[in-house]
Amino acid sequence: MKDTMTAFAVQDAIEWSLLHGMALKTARDSATHCAFSFAPTLIQQERFELLKAIVPLMGKLIHGVSEDHEFLREAISPLCNADPFFASLLALHQAIHHGPIPAERIPMLLMRTDFMDDAERGPQLIEFNGIAAGMGPFGQRAHELHHYLGYQWPSVFQHWSEDASQELVPNHCIEHLAKGIAGAAKTVRAQSGETGQPLFIMVVQPDEDNVYDQHLLEEAIQQEGVKTVRRTFRQLYDQLSSGENQRLLLNGLGGVDAIYLRAGYQYCDYVAHDVDEARCCEALGKTRVMIEQHRVTINATVSQQLATSKRVQMLLSSMTIEQLTAFGLTDDEATRIKPFLGEMRPVDHEAIARFKHENPHDWVLKNQGEGGGHCVFNDAILPKLKSLKAEDYSAWSLMRRLHPRHRSQPALVVRRGEATTVDDLISEIGMFTLHLNGHSLTSEMGYAGYLIRSKPSSVTEGGVHSGQGAVDSLAYGNKPSA
Question: According to the UniProt record, where is the region Disordered (predicted)?
Fold first, then answer.
């Protein structure tokens, strides 16, 4: 393959990405394309269909956990001394579900369940993403980009593909999420007795750079006949009020029908220096409580945020089949889910003593943080464990590290306008599901689409936004590497 042809194809791919909104904001008036793989990663069709069938059950499980408020209180309470943020979330949870005003919100679980396909164990859960579960639109755009490259640059695309007979795996994440969210908003609007367009609020962070992914979803929701607006928690603090029949009202626009939080998973989202409150973040935290006291569908509820925490994930991973059925799963469903939950261990004196005899490359140390930068790897794990105070143990857990097969041939990754050859590209697969109060909001039992993020196997931080990952897509083929 001539380098000049590859260079032309790469430049065309970059321009396509910017044209179709697969980009990250770099300044008020500029953006760069999102990092992407030039060709898809392979997966066996049977493996993909299995994951599609499993993730709706994961959604059912997390919904059951999120509505078991006593279980959440017992699960999260040990974190409170070690993690002030989770202490504040639990306080919000208690105010919502044990306060004088009942919680009228309708939980909408928009969740991304992330897996990695271990070479020996098969697909294993990495984490649940229940709040700010984003980048589904980028997942669809990556699929569309690969479809475009296969048509426009067939010889270059085939050169960087593992299997000449591969078939791209469909990904309609934007449409599925938009139709589901719009349907939920329309349901709430109809129940309220009001007419006119339903109103959807996306709660965002100020001056955020990952905005195009959000706008792609908003635009699709608008095409479904729903009015969309963007607000920060600080703006909502001033603009929300209560109407009749527990309707949530937004100044100037009336009744709110659906809310999707792309913020709220870190302390800084709640900071408002111009609001006089006794404690940092208390005022904007009260806004979340106020929202959940109204008849509005929302993702993520505080309960959903707690239910998808690393702490709860660790507890679920160690449960028996019978214990899992306490959250609404049948015996058969719990049996099917169990092998995917992976292995996690709590951090305590015994675990630290045992770890001295473990291979540190077989484990990852995680705290409760969301996004990149919250994991400790390899030889840094034991010193970190030794540095922890006993009261901090509950905020950390050990997860069995996964080792997926890398691609069978070099891959091309494009980042900041430059194409780089990667010899050991591995992939993480995120599967989106969408449920309203436990009921499917898509035509495929709640499954809504996928996001593939690929990275060199030597890299620990694989996030597209905060790490060295690149968006990717899937193809059915004869050399499974995903």
Answer: 461-482
Q: Angle at CA 379, nearest 5°, toward 377 and 384?
A: 75
pLDDT grade for 482, boundaries at 50, 70 and 90:
very low
Residue 310 has pLDDT above 90, yes or no: yes
Residues with Cβ within 8 Å of residue 106, at least 6 apart in sequence: 184, 188, 295, 296, 297, 298, 436, 437
What is residue 278's DSSP assignment?
A: S
Domain assignment present for residue 409? The answer is no
Per DSSP, the chain holds a count of helices (H) and strands (E) of 16, 25
Average pLDDT for 461-476? 81
**Number of C-beta neighbours around residue 408 at 10 A:** 12
What is the tens place of the pLDDT at every residue in 227-276?
A: 999 999 999 999 999 999 999 999 999 999 999 999 999 988 988 878 76
What's the pLDDT band for 283 if we cut at 50, 70, 90? confident
Strands 474-476, 41-43: pairing kind: parallel
Pairing of strands 411-415, 418-422: antiparallel
Q: What is the pTM of this model?
A: 0.95
**Coil, strand or helix: which one is 416?**
coil
Cα three-residue angle 354-356-357, rounded to 5 degrees: 75
Structural domain contains residue 482: no
Count of CB atoms situated within 10 Å of the CB of 467: 17
Question: Pairing state of beta strands 167-168 and 240-242?
Answer: unpaired
Split into its structural domains, the chain has a count of 1
In a domain, 140, yes or no: yes
Give the amino acid at 238: D
Query: Is residue 461 very low, low, confident or very high in pLDDT (cuts 50, 70, 90)?
Result: low
* Arithmetic mean of pLDDT, 100-116: 97
- pLDDT tops 60 at residue 462: no
Structural domain containing residue 98: 3-402+423-476
Task: Please state, in angstroms and rounded to a whole number, the distance separating the CA atoms of residues 385 and 392.
Answer: 10
Q: Where are the alpha helices (DSSP H) in 299-375?
A: 302-307, 310-317, 321-324, 331-337, 349-355
Tokens 């100020």 belong to 206
DSSP secondary structure of 191-239: HHT--S--EEEEE--TT-S--HHHHHHHHHHHHTT-EEEEE-HHHHHHH
> What are residue 13's phi and psi, to 5 degrees?
-65, -40
Cβ atoms 368, 397 nearer than 8 A: no
**pLDDT value, residue 312:** 97
DSSP string covering 99-162 = SSS----EEEEEEEEEEEEETTTEEEEEEEE-SS---HHHHHHHHHHHHHHHHHSHHHHHHT-S
